[in-house]
Fold these 2 entries.
Entry 1:
Amino acid sequence: MYSSKKKGLRLSFNAPVTLVFVGLCVAARLIDMLTGGAANRAVFSVYGSSMANPLTYVRCVAHVLGHASWSHLIGNMMYILILGPMIEEKYGPKSTAAIILITAVVTGIINMVLFPRVMLLGASSVVFAFILMSSITVREDNTIPVTFILVALLYLGQQVWQGVTEKDNISQMAHIAGGAVGSVMGFLLSKAERKSRSR
């Protein structure tokens, strides 16, 4: 007598940090809608403010959760959902969370120092950190991938060109800073991973 058990389809939370980050971004958007835009101004954006104000430090991190519209949010989340799981599988949840946090803090500080009157919000800096980082996740020992060089040149060239020729609401500074963080973190994590494998 032969019997078999059929396994049903199950949901797999393959990238917890990525999914939590996306969930927080959606929640921030809903909260901002319910408060008529007050939440973005108070918490989910970063701009020059007194260092004695506790919210200044919150905004320096939370600005990557805020988005100006649903289209702004969806555009960023599509890239996060594509790139995030790959990076999280490669480097682990803790490193992925660290990348998001460091990118938020770096872009927040730069914006407060250089553009104190500009209200910066959105996860585009994290997106570009992931883009640059994903291009170097397959590095071999002592080599710099040609794909990374091409992505970096095209990306940086595009951002510089847009910064010079266009007047829009997209912060090229945040994109460049995010890409720089992703590049540095990618090289450091790749180096650490190779050392651990060689032991």
Entry 2:
Amino acid sequence: MTKVSFINSNNPAVTLSAVINLPEGFAEGRRYPAIVVAHPGGGVKEQTAGTYAARLAEYGFVTIAFDASYQGESTGEPRQLENPYVRTEDISAVIDYLTTLPYVDNDRIGAMGICAGAGYTINAAIQDRRIKAVGTVSAVNIGAMFRNGWEGTVKDIDALPYIEAGSAARTADASGGSIATMPLAPLKEEDAPNEELREAWEYYHTPRAECATAPGFAALRSLNQIITYDAYHMAEVYLTQPLQIVAGSVAGSKWMSDDLLRRAASGEKAMHIIEGANHMSLYDGAAYVAEAVTVLGKFFSGKLAPAVNRAAAE
């Protein structure tokens, strides 16, 4: 694993921080398929995204997990901005960087993400045709989640106060005071409305996976972009790449994976259900992650194989 940093091609004022994993037996002069891994909202590359990136490298891929602009060890102000449009563009910026590496095969680039990172990956794949295969784990369409709630039971219009709160936060931020923030996962155990989200608190705020660069909150102004964002916008038309979805059988967020499967235009799409897993189980539960990695590793190995190998398999 090697830590790298590079200028964000979408915003030269931002430097992205990432870790690259090389496959075993890596040889200079060869060109390898690559996979970009996007972290959850509130996460960083040292957590679940880094776990999946490292494990997928074992399948012969160059993998890269990165911190989003304004987050983690990447630069940019205001800190902890969770602008979904920026986060989507970050994925394409990372691909821009990969295409400059002599050992990456530009025709064999895949992308995956966990939680909101999965939704951003889908949105990136819809508009960036360099992504040849797409994987998701515990997918969250962050706009739908904020509009409709964790289990999809809230009406869109009921999220209007969030837009108003984001608008007010922008005015307050403009006055030069401290940036208003909001939790992306419960900041206290007692704030969790259910066991699944209690695990989210545990993941981000206890030794289970806490990281100094992942405070678990976002700039409140992010709500203006989040509420009206649809990670799956135009998926019915343009998400034509092979797609592998992984979700837990008891995840409150599973409805967003179901929605993705229904909406994706891809003729090669599948959802693998991991029995007994909830949303957070797929972040770091050893057996659950192993099963997810096996599914994704086989998927990407098939879809990002050299063209001659794919033709032979077909």
